[in-house]
């Protein structure tokens, strides 16, 4: 065999291997959060209300002190919000955004703050600190698998799964709860939500058992659902870039066509009757990139189902290896985000031509 033939064969092998193993479009599996609803249990099976020694005294400083106060009290310290947006649960989000240093979402209903979510290096989440190690948190925090509370004549027990006690720790303070969102890959605190028990029950964030009356979850009407979804997209964009910056990556730019593809995909997920069984046919991201004639060198996609809000969705993705790697991929330049109710999609690309959109 002459040298030219050998060179031809070697080149063919390289090209075949490139086609076989190079995956310019990485579409990750759907990440799902099982729907949790309160279940009525007989009195004798209901865990007794947690004793007082498991309830921490409420912090005297930091953002948690504002929960239960008026939004005017918050504004006196932090000023006006950059955005005010509707939520899935009929309260408003007041968004305070300061790039890497601080990102805060303040839940407000009828002028009263019912929760504060804080992330970023300068977030004042006393007694915790963003970036604090999980080991350090365990040293001074009692992490329980079940936490009881009484509201009026009703009793409730939040039951945490082993995964919850690792990445969504629940801590009870006087009059409020703290949800500690952990990055289990870095074993560090990535965000904290201080929240009233009433709103925590509305979120159905944990398995919840109760005796008496279960607090009703009131979802928005269809007439404002679109505004809620667009707001969630902006919040998820903020959080995605916040975590990229924290891990030394550049923030991503919005790409409208990617967002349109993502919205359609999230709606497909929501309307599929067998979404949890994985037996449905959904559009392929790679096909949509071709259909929309989007020039790219590399692309990736994340999707999530039945997460309560963008805070929960980003925490789920960041604690899943493949989804996390997609979010933190250094070569990506643009993103499109689509939300439909509790269904979320992120589409990423490394643009191969100058942006024209």
UniProtKB/TrEMBL annotation:
Residues 238-339 form the SCP domain. SUPFAM superfamilies: PR-1-like. Pfam families: CAP, CAP_assoc_N. Gene3D superfamilies: CAP. Residues 68-206 form the CAP-associated domain. This is SCP-like extracellular. It comes from Chryseomicrobium excrementi.
